[in-house]
Write a structure and sequence with these properties.
The structure holds 2 protein chains of 2 kinds. Chain A has no helices and 10 strands. By secondary structure, chain A is an all-beta fold. The N terminus of chain B is likely disordered. The chains are: A mainly beta, B alpha/beta. At the A-B interface, strand 1, strand 2 and strand 5 of A face helix 18 of B. Chain A: Pfam families: Rieske_2.
């Protein structure tokens, strides 16, 4: 892959299993969080619930979903889409893990968080 | 002629109750405000209120203001003239005027009579004594509440809906309550005998004494009521007697005006009386021989009446099948239509499970549903009611109908195929019980309930994992089918109780082990079951189970409360609500240093620092720790606060050192994890300034002792505590409080507060184990202390020292 706009954000182990961490930088002005599932899959989403902008990075992660800590909306980590019957979606951010390092595709240079 | 001066016709409404004002509301919706100038006379001095909610006002679940339907402003805004506290005394049909008690004369073009009903009063001596009241209006409720404040013994006469709700309300208000009922079973017009017996048993467990088949001979007393004398010689002492034996239509005014009457004011399908200018609605009317006591048909009458008043002449009132329900928290009753088979062609289908407190009966006639009685699980009540109203043919569902909509409509076979299962298949692994053994026991000993099967075969009596299978097998042998039940979440078919029993019984010590042993459908659970399992394991195996922070809600993981903008609030512990200048100075310094936007005193007597950024949490905690302060667990499903008043140290009324006792309780209980949050309070005298009677545990000090109150709640549904015991020493208070909390920790469902838990299992069940059985109390107390050994570490200090450091810093971008 081209290395253009792929930013290294840290090592896989720095994110807890079934946990998430927020990035220092913004993505198009929005916060971004990186999620690690129980089976070590990595996903990145804009860290704002489509409902009331709750920080998804603070939610409980089960399988490949996260439950927003503010009002409990459940979001799929794969596609950022709310699990029915709820509606709404958050933007996903391309992510890649190479040799234990996590890279995010952030086309816009992030403003300082 | 008035028509020339005023284009509006004049509508006068006699009665300001629910039926009257619903008719007016319906009329306004039909633009009736442009047709009529409306005048309303009400006998009571209040605006229009929801009489049905009086039970909730009595029980303390609602305030009177919450029952007001239309405020005085509403009348004004809609141009309605309201004369409240001024009943109409006479109607002159010739002159078309009404005259009120105070002498007001108002002319009408159309008159609406909605005088409601009056309580039935039997002709027994002593009815006029002070301390005797009905249960009809807010005035009666006030009489009852006043009695509950100052007196202790209440007798309710009448075991129908109203009487039972009155009895429960008075019980909730702390009175000892006896209920006298003329018939052998309660609510005999709405419930059949088995359902009525289950209801009586449930209320009996909650402390109401019953005198069924009791004919009241007289109410005795000298200057004030003192007791109730029954015809069979039984005598019940009383400070308050509530008569709730029924109602009769209030027809005096209509009768005097010469309208046609029967039991009520005769109305036709258009709600007109025998005088075409006069309409009547509500409990005062009789329609095709029927009178009304429930609210649903009143709403239909209001619609029909309003449309005729508005000149839409087609609407007609027809009474429909009606359903009854009882407003007592935790007791579910539903009844509609026929209670029993009326002739040989009718069929009754019943399901009864005493262990789970569930009873269901449906009555069928010519393939159609004509009656339903439900106790304990009323989920399908409205569905049955609709089937009855639609007169739908239900013969295709016959064998599944009693199990409710979900099972009846899917048509799938329920449970495993027992017919094909070999007899030696093991059902209960703990006790080695096979299918054959269970079937044999059920057949030979005529077992009908799960409890029976457990007693006779030991199947499902240990870990409980096979409970569902045993129930289904029982139903298979006896000819029924298994009913649906409440599970923890969609990941499992197990209930909270079954999971808790299995964790202890099968010594399951990790979440993975629980999920594997109990057949979870998802590999790692979901956001609902994970926090529940984490708590259940922590409670069962203190010191062994490793808390899974990833299965905790953010507040408990981060040890602060998340706010709507993603910042956090921080509340340091203030033992018993007592603080010092040094602590306040440290809090002020933190507020300055971290530019805390809001500093707020909480309802639990603590100081809340709001708007702290997550990254700042460890340094805020470090600063607070340095001043000697620790986490207040204001975020935890655990002990929150112990609120106190100043007590005997300063207060001239204080009987005990309530502040000191509060601090001792908080030192004993802090750090404990519980199914839901727990709040305590200690008041130094019965004036109860610490509001102890709406707390999970409230101590009210009295001269020479302490009242221990449990199961209160000040939230959405206010619940006043039940009195568990009066004890003499602080030592007993501490031991009993801890034992009670341990019982709650071990037995309640995750996210169940003490109030609904106490209401669910009953005060007596708790009293038996925490008060009466000293060995059991000691064991609970010991288990609490053991668990506290691992719980009482300050989570803030641990994190200041570096624990979970990744939690409080964002990922660095390289």
């Amino acid at each position: 892959m081209s290395t253009a706009n792929w930013n290294k954000v840290g090592r896989l182990e720095s994110i807890p299993v079934r946990g998430a961490r927020r990035l220092c930088s913004l993505y198009f002005g929005r916060p971004v969080a990186v999620f690690r599932t129980g089976d070590d899959q990595i996903f990145a989403l804009v860290d704002e619930c489509p409902h009331k902008k709750g920080p998804l990075s603070e939610g409980i992660i089960a399988g490949d979903t996260v439950a927003c800590p503010l009002h409990g909306m459940v979001i799929g980590l794969q596609d950022g889409v709310a699990v029915a019957p709820d509606e709404g979606a958050v933007k996903t951010v391309p992510v890649s893990v190479i040799e234990g390092e996590v890279y995010l595709h952030l086309p816009e240079p992030g403003a300082p968080g | 002629m008035t028509m020339e001066r005023n284009p509006l016709m004049r509508l006068v409404v006699i009665g300001n109750g629910m039926a009257a004002m619903r008719t007016v509301e319906e009329l306004l919706q039909r633009d009736g405000g442009a047709l009529y100038s409306i005048t309303v006379f009400g006998a009571e001095p209040h605006p229009n209120y929801n009489r049905i909610m009086l039970s909730c006002v009595l029980a303390g679940d609602k305030s009177f203001d919450e029952t007001v339907i239309n405020t005085r402003e509403w009348y004004a805004q809609n141009g309605i003239t309201l004369f409240s506290g001024d009943p109409v005394a006479a109607v002159d049909r010739e002159a078309k005027t009404v005259t009120s008690q105070s002498g007001r004369v108002v002319a009408y073009d159309k008159l609406l009579i909605a005088t409601g009903s009056r309580p039935l009063a039997p002709s027994i001596p002593g009815l006029g004594l002070p301390g005797v009241c009905a249960f009809r209006d807010i005035n009666d409720v006030e009489t009852m509440l006043e009695a509950a404040r100052t007196k202790s013994r209440a007798v309710v006469i009448g075991g129908g809906l109203l009487g039972l709700e009155a009895a429960w309300g008075l019980k909730q208000r702390g009175m000892s309550v006896a209920l006298v009922h003329l018939m052998p079973t309660l609510m005999e017009r709405q419930l059949d005998v088995p359902a009525a017996q289950m209801l009586q048993k449930a209320l009996d467990r909650r402390g109401i004494s019953f005198f069924t088949s009791g004919q009241t001979e007289s109410i005795t007393g000298d200057g004030h009521v003192e007791g109730v004398q029954l015809g069979d010689g039984r005598y019940i002492p009383a400070d308050l007697v509530v008569l709730a034996i029924g109602i009769r239509p209030n027809i005096d005014l209509a009768k005097a005006a010469g309208l046609q009457i029967g039991r009520g004011i005769t109305v036709f399908d258009d709600m007109r009386t025998s005088d075409p200018a006069i309409f009547a609605v509500g409990e005062c009317v009789e329609h095709r021989g029927q009178v009304f006591g429930l609210v649903a048909p009143l709403w239909d009458q209001a619609k029909v009446c309003a449309s005729h008043l508005a000149g839409e002449a087609t609407a007609a009132f027809a009474s429909k099948a009606l359903a009854t329900s009882l407003k007592i928290t935790g007791i579910d009753v539903f009844s509609a239509g026929a209670l029993t088979a009326a002739d040989p062609d009718d069929d009754e289908i019943t399901l009864r499970d005493d262990a789970r407190g569930i009873y269901k009966k449906v009555v069928l006639r010519e393939g159609k549903l004509v009656g339903a009685v439900l106790y304990g699980d009323v989920t399908d009540g409205q569905w049955y009611l609709q089937l009855m109203r639609d007169k739908q043919d239900v013969s295709v569902w016959r064998e599944r109908l009693v199990f409710g909509r979900a099972i009846a409509e899917t048509g799938k076979p329920v449970g495993p195929d027992f017919a094909a299962m070999p007899d030696d298949t093991q059902i209960c692994g703990c006790n080695g019980v096979s299918k054959g053994t269970i079937c044999k026991a059920v057949r030979e000993k005529n077992l009908t309930t799960l409890a029976d099967v457990r007693a006779h075969t030991k199947a499902s009596a240990s870990c409980g994992q096979c409970t569902g299978q045993v129930e289904a097998l029982l139903a298979f042998v006896t000819g029924g089918v298994k009913t649906a039940k409440k599970t923890i979440c969609a990941c499992t078919d197990q209930s909270h109780d079954e999971v808790r029993a299995a964790i202890v019984g099968k010594r399951l010590k990790t979440m993975a082990a629980v999920r594997a042993a109990l057949g979870w459908k998802t590999p790692e659970g979901c956001q609902k079951c994970r926090p529940a399992l984490n708590y259940y394991l922590l409670c069962a195996w203190p010191g062994e189970y490793v808390d899974d922070l990833r299965s905790r809600f953010v507040n408990e993981r981060v040890h602060a409360n998340i706010q709507k903008d993603g910042t956090y609030s921080v509340i340091p512990r203030m033992w018993g609500g007592v603080t010092t200048a040094a602590e306040l100075r440290a809090i002020a310094d933190v507020a300055d240093k971290y530019a805390v936007p809001t500093v707020k005193v909480t309802g639990g007597q603590r100081i809340d620092l709001l708007g702290i950024k997550k990254d700042d949490l460890p340094s805020v905690w470090r600063d607070l720790n340095r001043a000697g302060m620790v986490s207040g667990h204001a975020y935890a499903k655990g002990l929150r606060t112990v609120k106190t008043c100043v007590g005997s140290e300063w207060c001239r009324f204080g009987t005990q050192d309530s502040t000191g006792l509060g601090i001792k309780l908080e030192k004993l209980c802090w750090g404990s994890w519980t199914p839901h949050k727990v709040k305590l309070a200690v008041s130094g005298c019965p004036r109860n300034c610490a509001e102890a009677t709406i707390k999970d545990v409230g101590i009210v000090c009295v001269e020479g002792g302490f009242d221990i109150m449990i199961g209160g709640n000040g939230g959405i549904e206010v619940r006043v505590t039940d009195k568990l015991a009066r004890v003499a020493t602080e030592g007993e208070v501490l031991e009993i409080t801890a034992a009670f909390l341990q019982m709650y920790r071990e037995e309640a469902h995750y996210l169940e507060r003490t109030a609904p838990w106490v209401a669910r299992i009953g005060l007596e069940a708790i009293r038996r184990r925490v008060i009466d059985d000293r060995t059991e109390r000691q064991a609970l107390f010991d288990r609490f202390l053991y668990s506290q050994k691992f719980a009482q570490t300050d989570p803030w200090a641990e994190r200041v020292a570096g624990s979970e450091a990744h939690e409080f810093a964002p990922l660095e971008e390289v």
